[in-house]
């Protein structure tokens, strides 16, 4: 094991001289595959095993680690892709176009165009389309990290220390964190109202609507009703464009039924939409991406396994700090650091297993999933496979295999 850790790797520049395309780092694909596997596990198994589903508000469950793990491993790639940038303008345009494509794909996948397993129809009302989602958050975070790598990396002199070479990246990360904390704790949240109707809620009868009032008049609150993140989304995006089924409805205050309905007697904010991928959370998501970028720098610059493992481990444990509550829906600063550290430790373990010890045969399935992660993500989040199976029914649309599984195992 010691010999393996001290074994030098082929330098990136030497790779470019000896082969046109350097070999892939297998552990990167394995980690992406692990993220996809976890996503499918919590999406399809969360209803059966609640402990792995998203935490209703504060706290950290298995499902809450999937998003930051995706951001972290996606952040590693720009450090390898943009290590040498002969034309910064051209590289910038490519990064912008890639981010736009990913953002638009996310709008189609998670904007409400696909109606899930309860309907054989598709299409979305543009008045109620959800603009933000997972791919949108990844696209914006990717663009921030790519611009940092293209324009703010010091590549002029090799004798410049590692920290000084990327000090501006950390300046961006600290600035984004400061803006996030300032807005989260500093903005005043007044009382607010919203209207719910049968068009977006199954609680009310046809042609009926009701106006709810949420009492706030405070600042710095991190609860589901009066946080500034929700207020920003309501002002910037509009309440009709937010996620209609927020996870905080699983709190005991909301008393949600097995079929996902919130009784009218519950707290007013239980009926309100809230987007866990909201505008404010994009700031700390970009910080997670930049942290992943620094792991990529260590992968690109250090030439031996031991040096990489030592630096990754030290870096990961240095991030394990607590301050504000750990909250995925708000993407709090503590949540950012803890999940980034967890991602770094997990990746280090996979790197040791796959790239150092060479046990790729044990993870070939995850590696394959990682190479096709975007395609699998689209299939899972659009429910394309489920909808295809559901489309084959007997006599009536509800007599299909998916409906049978849901009624027998998920609604018992």
UniProtKB/TrEMBL annotation:
<dbReference type="Pfam" id="PF07786">
    <property type="entry name" value="HGSNAT_cat"/>
</dbReference>
<dbReference type="InterPro" id="IPR012429">
    <property type="entry name" value="HGSNAT_cat"/>
</dbReference>
<keyword id="KW-0472">Membrane</keyword>
<feature type="transmembrane region" description="Helical">
    <location>
        <begin position="30"/>
        <end position="53"/>
    </location>
</feature>
<feature type="transmembrane region" description="Helical">
    <location>
        <begin position="65"/>
        <end position="83"/>
    </location>
</feature>
<protein>
    <recommendedName>
        <fullName>Heparan-alpha-glucosaminide N-acetyltransferase catalytic domain-containing protein</fullName>
    </recommendedName>
</protein>
<feature type="transmembrane region" description="Helical">
    <location>
        <begin position="330"/>
        <end position="354"/>
    </location>
</feature>
<feature type="transmembrane region" description="Helical">
    <location>
        <begin position="134"/>
        <end position="154"/>
    </location>
</feature>
<feature type="transmembrane region" description="Helical">
    <location>
        <begin position="279"/>
        <end position="300"/>
    </location>
</feature>
<feature type="domain" description="Heparan-alpha-glucosaminide N-acetyltransferase catalytic">
    <location>
        <begin position="24"/>
        <end position="148"/>
    </location>
</feature>
<feature type="transmembrane region" description="Helical">
    <location>
        <begin position="95"/>
        <end position="114"/>
    </location>
</feature>
<keyword id="KW-1133">Transmembrane helix</keyword>
<feature type="transmembrane region" description="Helical">
    <location>
        <begin position="166"/>
        <end position="188"/>
    </location>
</feature>
<feature type="transmembrane region" description="Helical">
    <location>
        <begin position="374"/>
        <end position="395"/>
    </location>
</feature>
<keyword id="KW-0812">Transmembrane</keyword>
């Amino acid at each position: 094991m010691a010999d393996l850790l001290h074994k030098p790797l082929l330098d990136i520049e030497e790779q470019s001289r000896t082969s046109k395309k350097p070999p892939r780092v297998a552990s990167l694909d394995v980690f992406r595959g692990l993220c996809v596997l976890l996503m499918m596990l919590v999406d399809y198994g969360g209803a059966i095993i609640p402990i792995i589903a998203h935490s209703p508000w504060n706290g950290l469950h298995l499902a809450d680690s999937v998003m930051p793990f995706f951001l972290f491993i996606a952040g590693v790639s720009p450090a390898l892709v943009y290590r040498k940038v002969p034309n910064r303008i051209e590289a910038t345009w490519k990064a912008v176009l890639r981010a736009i494509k990913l953002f638009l794909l996310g709008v189609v996948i998670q904007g409400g165009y696909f109606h899930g397993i309860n309907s054989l129809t598709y299409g979305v009302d543009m008045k109620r389309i959800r603009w933000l989602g997972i791919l949108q958050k990844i696209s914006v975070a990717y663009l921030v990290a790519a611009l940092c790598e293209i324009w703010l990396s010091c590549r002029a002199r090799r004798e410049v220390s590692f920290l000084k070479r990327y000090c501006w990246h950390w300046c961006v990360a600290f600035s984004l964190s400061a803006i996030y904390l300032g807005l989260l704790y500093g903005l005043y949240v007044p009382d607010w109202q919203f209207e719910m109707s049968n068009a977006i809620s199954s609680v009310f009868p046809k042609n009926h609507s009701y106006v709810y009032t949420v009492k706030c008049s405070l600042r710095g609150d991190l609860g589901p009703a009066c946080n500034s993140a929700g207020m920003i989304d309501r002002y910037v995006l509009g309440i009709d464009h937010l996620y209609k089924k927020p996870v905080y409805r699983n709190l005991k205050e909301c008393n949600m039924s097995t079929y996902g309905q919130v009784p009218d007697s519950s707290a007013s904010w239980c009926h309100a939409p809230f987007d866990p991928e909201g505008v404010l959370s994009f700031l700390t998501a970009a910080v997670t991406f930049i942290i992943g970028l620094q792991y990529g720098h260590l992968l690109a610059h250090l030439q031996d396994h031991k040096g990489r493992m030592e630096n990754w481990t030290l870096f990961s444990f240095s991030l394990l700090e607590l301050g504000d509550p750990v909250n995925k829906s708000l993407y709090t600063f503590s949540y950012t650091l803890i999940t980034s550290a967890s991602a770094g430790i997990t990746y280090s373990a996979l790197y040791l297993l796959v790239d150092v010890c060479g046990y790729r045969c044990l993870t070939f399935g995850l590696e394959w999933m990682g190479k096709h992660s975007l395609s699998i993500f689209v299939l899972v989040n659009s429910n394309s496979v489920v909808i295809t199976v559901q489309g084959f029914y007997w006599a009536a649309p509800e007599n299909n295999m998916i409906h049978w599984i849901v009624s027998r195992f998920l609604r018992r």
